[in-house]
Amino acid sequence: MIKVALFDMDGVLYDSMGNHAVAWVQSMKKFGINMTADDAYATEGARGVDTIRYMVKQQQNRDITEAEAQAMYDEKSRIFHSMKEAPIMPGIIELMEQIKQAGISIGIVTGSGQRPLIARILKDFGQFVSPEHITTAYDVKRGKPNPDPYLVGLQKAGNIAPTEAIVIENAPLGIRAGVAAGIYTIAVNTGPLSDQVLLDAGANILFPSVKALSDSFNSFLSERCPF
């Protein structure tokens, strides 16, 4: 029996990845880093500081401290929050309503640590998720694609077993994290990546959108979910 559904945030709760891509490209250029929109999508879900340290190592062949990476990430966050607020993903409210009606609790597992985004989650989805069930970059030392964020999400949900949970993700690194944690992982393709990229990351099943998952969720629970 499924006891908890763990959602990624960007690209699942919010149609926000376009804004993130622009903010990444503009902010990293200020530090001499050539980061493309494709890079932003490929590294989605990882802790921002980890992405920055990786990019600096690849392009400048130097190791930077987490504090230096955080300062660079703060600039990325500043640009992101100066942009128009990303809309709620179509179908997500309806999906959460069905999950709640099924007696399944909801947790959020994000690579972000931006407090305004966490506050927005509680404003938009407070009827479904409580603050103690939100896992952020500050809860783990190793972000996605390591299993740690989703393992913490299980702990916050009440020490739920991986076999009693599902993950809803849109990014390869997040999918790999859910699979590594031993959780049945659903991919929703809300971005420019091909379906095959998400399936190759290990997704157990793929839907073309959050709305498509919402439209099929009850039948998925009764017919296709292996619990």
TrEMBL record:
GO terms for molecular function: sugar-phosphatase activity. It comes from the Bacteria. Coiled coil: none annotated. This is Haloacid dehalogenase superfamily, subfamily IA, variant 3 with third motif having DD or ED.
